[in-house]
UniProtKB/TrEMBL annotation:
Domain Prepilin type IV endopeptidase peptidase residues, every copy: 104-214
Protein name, entry field: Prepilin leader peptidase/N-methyltransferase
Transferase as UniProt keyword: yes
Transmembrane segments: 102-120, 126-143, 155-173, 193-219, 231-253
Membrane topology, from the record: Multi-pass membrane protein
Keywords, in A-Z order: Cell inner membrane, Cell membrane, Hydrolase, Membrane, Methyltransferase, Multifunctional enzyme, Protease, Transferase, Transmembrane, Transmembrane helix
Organism: Dactylosporangium fulvum
Gene3D superfamilies cross-referenced by the UniProt entry: 1.20.120.1220
Length: 260
């Protein structure tokens, strides 16, 4: 298993490098293939050995090799963060038939969270294909593990969360965008696959985290009551929290309601 985690970690670094391109180009409607990686200041192409995840940034000391313009530390952090998330997901689910689906969720979560923070938008180019990709990646697990109940529960939760968020967007349009509604369906599929307790924990955690972030921004003066605050990162963080900790959180909450 240790070797598998190392391999997945290296894969995460490579995927994180690609996600940096996705995060920068998708909101701008640019191609992911052309042009190749280049400095946004002087447009000089990035040399292959400078494109090595994390190490390339360290080698250049965070600056362009041609014009010495600063390169954001977010690039290696995205690569490292994706690698850590890939390793954590693999440790959680093991080398199972469903692992590719969870790795896909991890990659999409990183990209969508940062894009939403940057431009206050969850691009259809990423969210909508996930309605096809995620079920297809989970299908082998349904067949291999014969867990038809998990597949059905995931589809029901997908529809339920979509409707729930859609109603919220109608009731409170200023606080809920339609991108959040579309993302809710994808997260519902994954959380429903895990169980209804995961759906409950992931959904509640999203609103709790969103409220805490909003309160902190207001208290520190970084946002006003009319400032738009992206909710997508809170939704994704809540789903990931449920993925790793729904069972202990549910047990703890149950113990409060039904003390021994």
């Amino acid at each position: 298993m240790t070797l598998a985690l190392v391999v997945v970690g290296v894969l995460g670094l490579a995927v994180g490098s690609f996600l940096n391109v996705v995060i920068h180009r998708v909101p701008r409607g640019e191609s992911l293939l052309r042009p190749t990686s280049h400095c946004p200041q002087c447009t000089a192409p990035v040399r292959p050995w400078h494109n090595v995840p994390v190490l390339g940034w360290l080698l250049l000391r965070g600056r362009c090799a041609d014009c010495a313009a600063p390169v954001s530390a977010r690039y290696p952090l995205v690569e490292l963060g994706t690698a850590v998330l890939f390793v954590a997901v693999t440790a959680r689910f093991g080398l199972s038939a469903s692992l590719p689906a969870w790795l896909y969720l991890a990659a999409v979560a990183v990209a969508l969270a940062l894009i939403d923070l940057d431009v206050l938008r969850l691009p259809n180019a990423i969210v909508l294909p996930s309605y096809v990709v995620a079920p297809l990646l989970l299908l082998p697990a349904v067949v291999v593990e014969r867990d038809w109940a998990a597949g059905l529960r995931g589809l029901i939760a997908m529809a339920a969360l979509w409707v729930f968020y859609f109603v919220l967007s109608l009731v409170y349009p200023g606080g809920m965008g339609f991108g959040d509604v579309k993302l809710a369906g994808v997260l519902g599929l994954y959380l429903g696959w895990l169980g209804w307790s995961s759906v409950a924990v992931g959904t509640f955690a999203a609103f709790l985290l969103g409220g805490v972030v909003g309160a902190v921004l207001l208290a520190t003066g970084r946002a006003g009551r009319r400032t738009a605050v992206p909710f997508g990162p809170s939704m994704l963080a809540g789903a990931l929290l449920a993925l790793f900790a729904a069972a202990p959180i549910t047990s703890w909450y149950s113990s409060l309601l039904l003390p021994a």
